[in-house]
Every structure is written in C-alpha cells, then in structure tokens.
C-alpha cells in the first residue's frame, strides 16, 4: 500500500497518523474467528430454523405428564444427573416433545443451544456441524464468551477438522471456564439447557457413540452448569451406553426415560385425533364432514387401536385426511378400510411406509453384511420368528431360544437378528419358563410388534423384496 516502496532513511515532518484505521483492523481481526464459526454452523438444525417451519410439536393438553417431568428436570439445577436420555420407538413423538421443550425453554430463557438431527439433510446427519452450532448459540448469549470462542478459532483455524471431543473442549468447555473465572459470565443465570434431538439420524453407530462419549467426557466430567437432553430411537450405540452392563458408561450418569414403556399415549392420541379430524371437517366443503356426528366414535377408536401408542401413525392419518383435493370423509374411510392385500392404488400411510422401510432396510443391510451371516435371508428369518411368536407355526408356540435352533441360528441368534429393529419391536420374557427353571439365565425373548400396522407394513415390504 506504500506510495514510496523503495524509500529509506527519510523523515516526514508534521505528519499526523490517525489511529481509526488501526482500530478498525483490530476489530475486523477479532471477528475473523466468529466469521469462520458461522461458516461451519448448521442453521437448519436450530429449533426455530426457517427450514423446520411448522415442525411437529405437542398439541395443547397432550403429553402433559411427560412434558412436566422433562421441564422439572431441566429446571432442577441441583439434581445430580445432568444428562437426560429419552428413548422411544419410531414415531413415539420424541421430536415433537423436543420441539415443545425447546419452545418452553426459549420462552423462559433457559435454552442454551439446540441441535435437531435429520437423516435427509447433509448439514445435520453427521457430526461435522454439531459442536460449532452449539458453540455459536452459546456465544450469542454472552459477548465475552463469543469473543473468547472467536479467539480460540483464530489460534487454531483447523479446529473444525479435528475430532469432536477436541472441538467441544476448545470451543465450549475452555471458553466457558475462562469467562466464568474472569467474572464476565454468571453461570447461575446463564441459559443452561442443551437439546439434541434424533441422535439415531446421525449416520453411523460409531458417530453416535462418539457424540455420547464426547458429552460424557466434556460436558459431564467438567464442572459446568449445562443440563443436556438427548432423544433417540433405542439404537445399539445408545442402548449400549445406557444399559446396566459392562459397556454402560452412562448408566449411573443419565436419567433415562423410556418413552414407549413409561408413558401410555393412548388417551393423548385419542384427543389429538378427535381435535384434528373434527377441525378438518369444520373447514371442509363436504357437507358430510361438517355433520356433527362425523367422525364416529367407532372410527376414532379403530384409529387409536391401530396407532398402538405411536403418534406418527395418528399424525400420518391427519396429514392424509387433510388433503384439500379430496373429501376428508372418503379419505378417512380409505385409511380405516386399507389392507396390504387389498390391491388399492391409494397409499394413505405412505409416510409411515417410508419410515418403516428405511429402518427395515438398514437393519437388513447391517445383518446380511456380516461375514458370519452365511448368506441367510434377513427378511425370511424375521418373518419366521414373527410367525412363531404369533403361534402360527406348528401346534404349540416354541420358545424363541428353541426356535433359534430349529431355523439353524446360533445360540441367542434372535438377539442379533433384532438388534437393529429395537425402534419397531420389543422383547419380553418367554412365559413358557418359570423363574425357577434351570434355564433362568437363558430365558428367550419373544418378539412382539407394536401394532398390526407394523406387521402389515413388514409383510408388504417382504413380498416386494422377494419379487
């Protein structure tokens, strides 16, 4: 920039140098780290992101009990467990609960950061953006924290390429401790809730396990005020960390809510269906839908039974019935009368089909990709166990342990077979054995579907796969 690039040994008298440009450059340099951070943030993952417009949340008057329990835990900063993990079946309403909690925490100024994973979004189906996104939200809550995070990035511009545990220590833990020690941040009033939804939608078991481990070693093992709420399907990496076993390093540290087991959503689903379907009828031009006795109580109860406690079924029905290009009366009847063998062209539960198909396909690929699989067909084995659990094979239902041997699976082979279907099916002890039986430690598990709808979806998928 010099106009005398080769000049030397000269003096200029009466020259005034104004510091404003220097100050401006200093400010720009101080913001470089923050600008780099913003380039590595997944804005779609925020709870109020424009990309997540009209995200599912709990209707007023529904999920009241579980919502209260979650908020009580978040607000009780003296409770010893600073990690809450909520697991539940596919479609149990985990994301709706997270969205509802995010809104409540935002209103009460306790929301520090939120990250909503999504398998279909490349910015939020992996670990690349989660720590920068959390750090950015926390930095926006306090100017001193923001400046400290920026400085950390300037000192290590490659931080975004490092392991997420290093990122968490560098961008969250160390800056937070620094500003607390300097007195520039009051930890007692700082928004302390960190929400992570849909960990199962982060691709790869290793990535899911890495994030759980990072939360433990960085956020729980340090003296930080954060309370972390993670929701997920009960996939292997999550189950292993939370189980009371050798690998369960979070068993004592986490408050674990098993949503599908601990809270019966039947009454909430019934209320949701009545409210939503009646609302659709009132807005419809079809006079049949405006009739006070539509829908009938019988119709609603059939839908409630078919939902089997899974909100996603009810939400899928409502979405289909609300389509403006058709009569809600006819579309509701199509849902109630639909069967996989009916040959209908309409697919009222297509969104549910996609969800179940993706879970089943992933489980199939993982099972058949193991070298010890010996070429066995995953779908046929699942179907065989399902038929045995229904008592449709032979005169007497075999124990699952015995049935493994009948179909030439290794001992406890059904455990491996259903390992990646935990979000669709659950296991219970075989009633054929008493607790005093010699084989008490080998009690077989019987696979039970959450609903007949799951069986129908599976059967249809299996038939298509065979074709």
TrEMBL record:
Keyword annotations of the record: Repeat
InterPro entries in the cross-refs: NPHP3-like_N, P-loop_NTPase
Superkingdom, taxonomy of origin: Eukaryota
Pfam families xref list: NPHP3_N
Domain Nephrocystin 3-like N-terminal: 68-233
PANTHER family: AMELOGENIN (PTHR10039), NACHT DOMAIN-CONTAINING PROTEIN (PTHR10039:SF14)
Protein name: Nephrocystin 3-like N-terminal domain-containing protein
Organism: Candolleomyces aberdarensis
Source organism phylogeny: Eukaryota, Fungi, Dikarya, Basidiomycota, Agaricomycotina
């Amino acid at each position: 920039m010099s106009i005398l690039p080769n000049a030397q040994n000269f003096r200029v008298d009466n020259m005034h140098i104004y510091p404003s440009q220097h100050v401006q450059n200093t400010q720009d340099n101080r913001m470089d780290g923050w600008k780099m951070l913003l380039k590595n943030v997944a804005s779609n993952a925020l709870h109020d992101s424009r990309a997540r417009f009209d995200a599912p949340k709990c209707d007023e008057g529904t999920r009241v009990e579980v919502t209260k329990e979650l908020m009580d835990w978040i607000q009780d900063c003296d409770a010893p467990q600073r990690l809450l993990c909520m697991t539940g079946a596919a479609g149990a309403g985990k994301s709706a609960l997270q969205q509802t909690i995010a809104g409540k925490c935002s209103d009460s100024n306790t929301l520090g950061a939120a990250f909503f994973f999504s398998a279909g979004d490349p910015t939020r189906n992996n670990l690349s953006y989660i720590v920068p996104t959390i750090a950015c939200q926390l930095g926006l809550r306090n100017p001193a924290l923001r400046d400290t995070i920026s400085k950390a990035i300037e000192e290590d511009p490659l931080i975004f390429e490092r392991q997420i545990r290093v990122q968490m220590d560098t961008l969250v833990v160390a800056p937070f401790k620094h500003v607390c020690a300097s007195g520039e941040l009051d930890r007692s009033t700082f928004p302390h809730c960190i929400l992570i939804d849909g960990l199962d939608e982060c691709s790869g078991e290793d990535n899911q396990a890495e994030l759980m481990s990072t939360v433990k070693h960085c956020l729980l093992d340090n003296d930080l005020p954060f309370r972390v709420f993670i929701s997920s399907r009960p996939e292997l990496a999550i189950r292993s960390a939370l189980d009371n076993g050798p690998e369960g390093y979070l068993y004592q540290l986490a408050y674990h809510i098993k949503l599908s087991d601990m809270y019966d959503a039947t009454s909430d689903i019934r209320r949701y269906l009545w409210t939503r379907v009646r609302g659709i009828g009132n807005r419809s031009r079809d006079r049949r839908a405006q009739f006070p006795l539509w829908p009938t109580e019988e119709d609603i109860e059939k839908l409630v039974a078919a939902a089997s406690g899974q909100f996603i079924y009810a939400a899928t029905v409502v979405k289909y019935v609300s389509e403006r290009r058709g009569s809600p009366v006819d579309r509701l009847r199509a849902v109630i009368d639909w069967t996989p063998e009916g040959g209908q062209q309409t697919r009222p539960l297509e969104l549910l089909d996609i969800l179940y198909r993706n879970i089943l396909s992933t489980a199939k690929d993982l099972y058949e990709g193991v070298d010890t699989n010996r070429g066995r067909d995953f779908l046929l084995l699942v179907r065989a166990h399902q038929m045995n659990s229904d008592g449709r094979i032979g005169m007497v239902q075999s124990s699952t342990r015995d049935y493994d041997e009948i179909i030439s699976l290794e001992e406890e082979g059904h455990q491996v077979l259903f390992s990646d279907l935990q979000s669709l099916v659950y296991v219970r002890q075989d009633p054929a054995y008493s607790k005093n039986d010699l084989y008490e430690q080998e009690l077989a598990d019987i696979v039970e579907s959450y609903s007949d709808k799951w069986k129908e979806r599976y059967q249809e998928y299996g038939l298509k796969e065979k074709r």
